[in-house]
Design brief:
The protein has 403 residues and is of the alpha/beta class. 39% of the residues lie in helices and 20% in strands. The protein has twelve helices and 15 strands. The strands form four sheets. Strands 6-5-4-7-10 form a five-stranded mixed sheet. A five-stranded mixed sheet has the order 13-12-11-14-15, sandwiched between helices. Strands 1-3-2 form a three-stranded antiparallel sheet. Strand 8 and strand 9 form a beta hairpin. The radius of gyration is 23 Å and the shape is globular. Keywords: Kinase, Transferase.
């Protein structure tokens, strides 16, 4: 057998599992693909691939989707295969300081149902029970058998050790050292993955978004806070205890404005939603009742003061983003969060400042993508949470056994 690189040797069952997973991984990345075209991607022989795809079709894990045109020399028309994304489901949970947001998705993270409720308390055990109750409600209401749910992903702010399922620090909930993934899994009996909400957003973009075909990405989330996720070689860089990515808490003005973290002069305190609004209000103390939405309306209807604040914040963020790009050399920058709705008044000066301060070889072919932000309850954060469970599934192949 022609074995794919890094495939397990000496254990036929482990090798078979690995090869089946390789087929699914490549179908996820490539989309509908013929058996012939899968051969060079997977490293499998044509006979092995044909046999394994027949098994996967019989189990309902992949489907034949369409028939392509014959080649230049004629011959048999290729049949395209794709993952049967509707066969299994995932649950995503976004946990804020006040609310629980849940979605039920299929394996493509397409949202099938969503539900939001206020938190009924912040004690970890009570929150875990609340999550379990709502998850069971989604599954039963939409007639999804528990064994067709591949697991649950949970996203929340703070420092998260995803490998242990531990919330090391979360300020809104007042949690320190909480084994929250374990607590939830005890009540749901579902595999549960937990991570920082920006890492969850990055997982979503890597699976089915702008980062699907890329190995080196810089993901920036700006809204109520400012953070980043760095993907190198197709893997998320976590740093010690999952603490990497706190880009927003670099000090840019010692002794400056107090940040949400309690320190002074952080970048977040000047370019996040609340930081930008604070700058505007400092310049216009007579308008202290304005919200961010009010300020954006002013900017989009020609108010020069509001426009200037957005432009200067964009320039400032672009300047500091250039530092990250110069160090890590990503292929793409993906930008999300509530600030995605700021529009060209913010992003044009941001990109101009970014490119102006890049080391010349980094400027091209660097691409910049802004992920649309909507105010629906199933925002990119909670879809990203579901992506954590889906990503785990494609990495481990825990779903590959016949039901």
């Amino acid at each position: 057998m022609n074995q794919p690189p890094h495939s397990p040797k000496g254990d036929p069952q482990a090798l078979r599992h690995h090869n089946r997973l390789e087929i699914l991984r490549h179908l996820r990345t490539l989309g509908p693909t013929s058996r012939t075209d899968l051969v060079p991607h997977t490293g499998l022989s044509k006979a092995t691939l044909t046999g394994l795809t027949a098994e996967l079709i019989e189990e309902g894990l992949i489907v034949e989707t369409s028939i392509g045109p014959s080649g230049a020399l004629g011959g048999r028309k290729p049949v395209f295969l794709d993952i049967n994304y509707t066969q299994f489901h995932a649950i995503g949970v976004r946990l804020s300081g006040q609310d629980l947001h849940l979605v039920l998705t299929d394996l493509s993270t397409r949202v099938l149902a969503h539900h939001t409720e206020p938190l009924q308390g912040t004690k970890p055990e009570l929150v875990a029970q609340h999550v379990a109750r709502l998850a069971q409600h989604l599954l039963s209401t939409h007639h999804v058998p528990q064994d067709h749910c591949i697991g649950m992903g949970i996203a929340l702010a703070g420092v998260i050790d995803s490998s242990t399922g531990m919330v090391l620090f979360n300020s809104p909930l007042g949690w320190t050292g909480v084994p929250f993934a374990h607590l939830v899994s005890q009540h749901t009996e579902l595999p549960t993955v937990i991570d920082n909400d920006i890492n969850a957003f990055a997982a979503s973009e890597m699976l089915f978004g702008h980062g699907k075909q890329s190995q080196n990405l810089l993901v920036i989330a700006n809204g109520l806070g400012l953070g980043s996720a760095l993907i190198t070689g197709g893997k998320l860089y976590r740093g010690k205890n999952g603490g990497a990515g706190e880009f927003g808490h670099n000090t840019i003005q010692p002794g400056g404005r107090t940040c949400s973290c309690g320190r002074q002069g952080c970048l977040e305190a000047f370019v996040s939603e609340w930081g930008i609004l604070q700058t505007f209000l400092e310049n216009h103390p007579d308008q202290d009742s304005l919200t961010m939405d009010d300020m954006l309306k002013l900017a989009h209807t020609g108010d020069t003061g509001a426009q200037q604040v957005l432009q200067e914040a964009g320039q400032l963020l672009g300047f500091h983003l250039a530092h990250l790009v110069n160090v890590f050399a990503p292929e793409k920058i993906i930008f999300g969060g509530e600030a995605a709705r700021f529009g060209p008044l913010f992003f044009d000066p941001l990109q101009h400042s970014l490119r102006e301060h890049l080391f010349a070889p980094q400027t091209e072919p660097l691409s910049f993508h802004v992920v649309s932000w909507h105010q629906e309850q199933f925002t990119p954060w909670v879809v990203g949470a579901a992506s954590l469970a889906v990503k785990r599934t494609f990495e481990t192949g825990a779903w590959l056994h016949p039901q």
